[in-house]
Amino acid sequence: MGEFATGEWLARAVTEFLTLHPGVNCTLFEGNSTSVKERLQAGLLDFGVLLSPVDSGNLSYIKSPLREQWGVLVHVSSPLAALEGIDAPTLASEPLIVSERPEVLRELGAFLGQDLNKLSVRITGNLPYNLIACARHLKAPFLTLKKEHVIYPNLTFVPLQPALFSSCIVAFSKGPRSPLVNAFLAHLEKLSAKTA
């Protein structure tokens, strides 16, 4: 959660809420969108951060007021590392590393204006950390969101041009919620209004 702009915003909300309610404890769980949604629907999590576009199904959500910027992490030795931005034709000519999420793949296809089956997608996966390691060793661009306050050895972020942004949602159950969950939701909505 902390590597994206929304993670910083949510961390601020959680720490402020814990300060206001010193008897409350918090447990953080990190996973891909599928595992987070499954845990939310099973009642094992009160909240989950999901990257849009996402099928929120039977979940309610608060949209993060922050935007997440798309780009590629590239090896510093790559000619792409010297670019201020990477356009669709340049990206389409590269062997790519991408998330396996269908929603992300559709968004990439729309940006590139191409059928993804015609691209050279070398590696797909569900957890960014593993894909980042592959980008470092394979020296292939990894399509991802800009990571705030994170430095990856031998990799640099190059934004997509024209700029492409997504947002995150904080999802939660539509069903009955505890007073504590409702109190956090109210706090999150207040912080969201201040941040927007």
Describe the structure.
With 196 residues, the chain is of the alpha+beta class. Helix content is 35%, strand content 24%. It has helices at residues 5-20, 33-41, 88-92, 102-112, 128-138, 179-195; strands at residues 48-51, 59-75, 96-99, 121-125, 142-145, 155-159, 165-173. The longest helix has 17 residues, at 179-195.
Structural class, from secondary structure content?
A: alpha+beta
Residues in helices, as a percent range: 25-40%
Number of beta strands = 7
Spatial separation of the terminal alpha carbons: 19 Å
Largest sheet: 5 strands, antiparallel
Strand content: 15-25%
Shape: elongated
Taking all residues together, what is the mean pLDDT? 87
Poorly predicted runs are none
Number of helices: 6
Succession of helices and strands: HHEEHEHEHEEEH
What's the structural blueprint in terms of helices and strands?
Layout: H1 5-20, H2 33-41, E1 48-51, E2 59-75, H3 88-92, E3 96-99, H4 102-112, E4 121-125, H5 128-138, E5 142-145, E6 155-159, E7 165-173, H6 179-195
Parallel strand pairs: 3-4
Antiparallel strand pairs: 1-7, 2-5, 2-6, 2-7
Explain briefly what this protein structure is.
With 196 residues, this protein is α+β, with helices and mostly antiparallel strands. Helix content is 35%, strand content 24%. The radius of gyration is 18 Å and the shape is elongated.
